[in-house]
Amino acid sequence: MQSFFDSLSSSERRLVVGVGFIIFLILNMVFVWPRFKDWGELGNRMDQAKQKIAGYNRLINRATEFKGKLIELEGIGSNVPSESQANELIRMIQDQARKSQLPTPNISPVRLSNER
Predict the structure, then answer these.
(1) Would you say 104 and 97 are in contact if contact means Cβ atoms under 8 Å apart?
(2) What are the extents of the domains in the chain?
(3) How many Å apart are CA 35 and CA 41, to the nearest integer?
(4) Can you tell me the distance from the alpha carbon of 32 to that of 24, in angstroms, rounded to the nearest whole number?
(5) How many Å apart are CA 83 and CA 112, to the nearest integer?
(6) CA 94 to CA 105: how far, in whole Å?
(7) How many whole angstroms separate alpha carbon 27 and alpha carbon 81?
(8) How does 5-39 read in b/e, with b if 16+ C-beta sit within 10 Å?
(9) What is the pTM of this model?
């Protein structure tokens, strides 16, 4: 049994191959070539990601410097217990509510210790 291609003359074979090649080129121009710009966009996004990672790594490398600065600033500032700050805030809210003639919110004092 002969295939379709075998039954053609040499000039007809050349014509079929040429038409197939032209169809191949047209399909490439329509579907493949417009996607080449995606490589540039992908490269830009990768460069941006590398810059972000480099920035994060620079900050991570400065962690000991930040810890030292934190200890220094904690030593300078006054050490007010959080419970005292919370209770002072509650008192200020209740005082302002009384001045504005609003119902006083019922807020209970804060306990930060594990004991109840």
Answers:
(1) yes
(2) 10-73, 80-116
(3) 10
(4) 11
(5) 6
(6) 7
(7) 73
(8) eeeeeeeeeeeeeeeeeeeeeeeeeeeeeeeeeee
(9) 0.43
Amino acid (1-letter code) at residue 76: I
Helical residues (DSSP H) of the chain, grouped into ranges: 10-27, 37-61, 63-76, 82-99
DSSP state letter for 109: P
Inter-residue contact 61 to 67 (CB < 8 Å): no
φ and ψ at 15, to 5 degrees?
Answer: -65, -45
The residue written with tokens 């050349």 in the block is 14
Mean pLDDT of 25-45: 91
Q: Evaluate whether 112 touches 85 at the Cβ level (below 8 Å).
A: no
Among 3-7, 35-39, 51-55, 70-74, the range scoring the smallest mean pLDDT is 3-7
CB 77 within 8 A of CB 96: no
